[in-house]
Amino acid sequence: MVRANGRVKQKDIVDDEGISKERVHHIVTTGLGYRKVSACWVPRQLTVEMKAQRKDMCTQLLLERYNAEGEAFLQRLLTGDESWAQHYDPECKAQSMEYRHKTSPSPRKFKVISST
C-alpha cells in the first residue's frame, strides 16, 4: 500500500490489514526503510533570464502562427484589460507528508506568490 500511495495513512493500513498501528509503523520504517517526510517549500520567483526566455518563445510562436494563418489569425485574437487571478492551494505542510525511501529526494512544493 505504501509503494502504491506514499500518502497513505497508518490508520488506513491498520483498517485494511487488521494489524496494530505499532506493527504497521515497524514494518513501514524498519522493514521497508520508509520515513514520513513533508514537502520542502521553494520559491517560484522567475529570474530575469527565465522571463526573457518565455517572452522570446511566445513572440516566436505568435509570429509562426501569423506567418502560417495570416490575417485570419489576427481576427481571432481577443484583447482586454489586464486582470490578475490568485491561485490558492489549501494543502498545508502536514497534508503534504508522504512516505519516502531513505535514498529518495524530498518532495518540493512551490510557494504561491503574485508575479510582477
Automatic annotation (TrEMBL):
Residues 96-116 are annotated as: Disordered. GO terms for molecular function: nucleic acid binding. InterPro entries: RNaseH_sf, Transposase-MT_Hybrid. This is Histone-lysine n-methyltransferase setmar-like protein. The lineage of its organism: Eukaryota, Metazoa, Spiralia, Lophotrochozoa, Mollusca.
